[in-house]
């Protein structure tokens, strides 16, 4: 949610028991708000050097007794306003007509108010709790701003000259509707939207709510040029986009013609339609108040805030690459960046990849300001452990055959956040969780690595080699079991099998050999191959299928598929039920050929052994749900175009670094979704294809379990295997 400063006028002197209504017409009026800072005008109204505002509690917060806001008597507020008007008017000639109209509206609000007290609530601007010393200092500082003027001078003080020169960020957004801020701002179903919104606009897509700004992403219901509703999804997605709060504050209006609008790290990216497909969109950045920080006239393409301090845009010199600039100063930082990422929720560092002259890719790690933490020569660097400072790094191993330069691979190692290499990048695998996870620190502050021959090496976290026994581990058994590895000593087939302890580095033979182990493994495989396949097929009538409906199962399934959006899930649930009752001819390939000739409700539907009515309900859902992507098993271009999925609008698949196999693309998409609390779920598919969807991470296990009830297997995409080249 955005941090804000809020002005509220009340009849009662604020206390721990004061009632703050969320609707107009009661004992309180909403005046104005502003995001991220306290506008200078708010401070002028609250006090001056002779009459400082008082610190009071605000009962709208959980800690009702803590001093958290400032209050001033309305008589003093009105007097200071009259003084400010005398110093400001006539208004400067460079003020726009809309700015002058806003000034007059503010004058009416202040001079006609019948309330007794004015409260300034800016607690959300401070990241500290009320009982911390830092918050007390913040509240004192908010009050002390008022000491810069005394409210009686005949001319405007120097500290207030900016009100004349550049008032846009110093007056606030004035509307009685800001009284809504006295309660939590939440999204509503479209059917519950106010008339001014629901009559003319609709969500751009299901789930189009931005929590950073607490706004809906909307498009007009009718095309601005034709006045007609869109005839197709493509036409609908081409409509101009806007961002608006539930109480009517437009941060970006559809009338401005933007094709894409999204919030990122304290800025709003605004992209105009591309004049030439693929050439890049003329774009700009706004702050969360809707003011231009970087207007589109500056000429940057596909601009977005990569961190609160760094902007990424399309490079004019290098196709399919980016340039990075500082924010807000726009100082050039890095050019021809092929991939860039940042997650404040993990290790808080930026990662950028650039292609060297030899065609190889190198990754640099930067602080959020875009400055390198060290000079990196690594192809990739995973997530740093904030406690140990360690991350897994990859470096390309040159091919052994000079005639075949494509036969290269990557070696893994460990690097510290300061740039010190803890383990050289010569290993096949560093023990860790997921592909980009930090190295796993084992008991005794030890790290585990495997050579390309399968030999385990044990290091401490300072990089000292502790043990490199003459044993090897199969790929199937490289996970620790009670701090020990199953390993082999000697050459196949007579190699001794045993357990290697990472605690004392001892090897304890089990009395078996590699041949014994391999024979047992082959026996399991053979038994699986010989297992009989189910061949029984039953039938169920459509009437019986409709009667077997599990309403709770369907409701929960629809809710998960629609990311918890009530309106979208209700519509999907209705479409789903309609499809079960009256399916299209091609919905179920397993239905009887005689169904059309049968009496309504008596058609037979094939039900193979092991399936059940949940299976059939699932097949109907996958036939009509627009949230499922379905692509050919090797169609990487279709996968790259999956940016229409929730959370994927700014996803970029770097094939040079992340690999060009379709499995690499799925891993890349999953990694992009994870910081947003979203998961990529692979769904069952009977043909040579992929079916997948985006769900909330916390819902994925439940959906997998529900599909298990339908005798269908699904799984969450994690990451691909480490980058290798054969």
From TrEMBL:
Q: A Pfam family in this protein? A: DUF7822
- Which stretches make up the DUF7822 domain? 23-161
Protein name, as recorded: Uncharacterized protein
Lineage top rank: taxon: Bacteria
Among InterPro entries, the record links this protein to: DUF6630 (IPR046582), DUF7822 (IPR056724)
Q: Where is the DUF6630 domain?
A: 572-709
């Amino acid at each position: 949610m955005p941090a804000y400063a809020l002005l509220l006028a009340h009849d009662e002197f604020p206390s721990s028991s004061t009632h703050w209504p969320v609707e107009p017409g009661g004992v309180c009026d909403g005046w104005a708000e502003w995001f991220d800072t306290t506008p200078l005008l708010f401070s002028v109204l609250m006090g001056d050097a002779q009459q400082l505002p008082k610190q009071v509690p605000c009962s709208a917060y959980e800690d009702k007794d803590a001093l958290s806001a400032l209050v001033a008597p309305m008589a003093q507020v009105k007097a200071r306003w009259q003084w400010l008007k005398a110093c400001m008017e006539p208004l400067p000639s460079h003020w726009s007509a809309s700015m002058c109209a806003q000034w007059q509206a503010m004058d009416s609000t202040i001079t006609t108010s019948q309330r007794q007290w004015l409260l300034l609530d800016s607690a959300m601007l401070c990241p500290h709790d009320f009982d911390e010393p830092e918050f007390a200092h913040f509240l004192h500082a908010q009050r002390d701003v008022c000491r810069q003027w005394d409210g009686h001078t005949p001319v405007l003080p120097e500290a207030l000259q900016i009100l004349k020169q550049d008032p846009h960020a110093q007056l606030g957004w004035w509307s009685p509707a800001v009284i809504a801020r006295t309660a939590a701002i939440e999204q509503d179903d479209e059917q519950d939207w106010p008339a001014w919104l629901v009559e003319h606009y609709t969500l751009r897509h299901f789930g189009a709510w931005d929590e950073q700004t607490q706004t809906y992403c909307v498009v007009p219901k009718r095309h601005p040029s034709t006045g007609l509703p869109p005839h197709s999804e493509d036409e609908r997605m081409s409509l101009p986009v806007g961002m608006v709060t539930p109480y009517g504050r437009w941060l970006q209006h559809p009338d401005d013609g933007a094709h894409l609008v999204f919030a990122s790290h304290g800025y709003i990216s605004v992209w105009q339609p591309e004049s030439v497909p693929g050439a890049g969109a003329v774009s700009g950045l706004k702050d969360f108040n809707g003011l231009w920080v970087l207007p589109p006239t500056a000429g940057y393409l596909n601009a977005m805030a990569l961190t609160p301090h760094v902007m990424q845009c399309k490079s004019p010199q290098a196709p399919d690459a980016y340039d990075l600039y500082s924010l807000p100063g726009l100082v050039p930082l890095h050019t021809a960046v092929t991939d860039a990422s940042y997650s404040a929720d993990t290790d808080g560092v930026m990662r950028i990849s650039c292609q060297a002259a030899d065609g190889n890719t190198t990754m640099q790690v930067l602080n959020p300001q875009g400055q390198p933490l060290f000079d990196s020569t690594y192809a990739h660097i995973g997530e740093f452990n904030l406690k140990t400072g360690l991350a897994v790094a990859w470096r390309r191993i040159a091919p052994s055959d000079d005639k075949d330069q494509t036969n290269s691979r990557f070696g893994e190692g460990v690097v510290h956040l300061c740039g010190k290499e803890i383990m050289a990048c010569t290993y096949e695998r560093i023990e860790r969780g997921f592909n980009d996870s930090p190295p796993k620190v084992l008991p005794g502050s030890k790290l585990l690595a495997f050579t390309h021959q399968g030999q385990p090496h044990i290091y401490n976290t300072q990089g000292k080699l502790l043990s490199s026994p003459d044993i090897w581990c199969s790929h199937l058994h490289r996970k620790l079991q009670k701090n020990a590895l199953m390993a082999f000593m000697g050459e196949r087939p007579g190699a001794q099998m045993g357990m290697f302890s990472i605690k004392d580095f001892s090897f304890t033979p089990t009395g078996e050999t590699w041949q014994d182990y391999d024979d047992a493994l082959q026996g399991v495989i053979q038994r699986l191959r010989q297992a009989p396949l189910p061949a029984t097929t039953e039938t169920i009538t459509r009437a019986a299928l409709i009667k077997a409906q599990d309403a709770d199962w369907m409701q929960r399934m629809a809710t998960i598929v629609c990311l918890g959006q009530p309106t979208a899930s209700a519509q999907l649930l209705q479409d789903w039920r309609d499809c079960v009752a009256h399916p299209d001819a091609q919905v179920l390939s397993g239905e009887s050929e005689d169904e059309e000739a049968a009496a309504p409700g008596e058609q037979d539907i094939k039900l193979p052994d092991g399936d059940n009515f949940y299976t059939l309900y699932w097949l109907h859902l996958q036939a009509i749900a627009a949230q499922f992507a379905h692509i050919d098993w090797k169609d990487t271009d279709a996968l790259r175009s999956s940016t229409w999925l929730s959370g994927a609008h700014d996803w970029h698949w770097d094939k040079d670094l992340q690999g060009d196999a379709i499995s690499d693309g799925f891993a890349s998409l999953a990694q992009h979704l994870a910081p947003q609390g979203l998961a990529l779920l692979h769904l069952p598919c009977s043909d040579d294809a992929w079916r997948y969807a985006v769900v909330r991470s916390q819902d994925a296990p439940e959906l997998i379990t529900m599909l298990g009830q339908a005798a269908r297997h699904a799984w969450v995409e994690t990451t691909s295997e480490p980058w290798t080249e054969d």
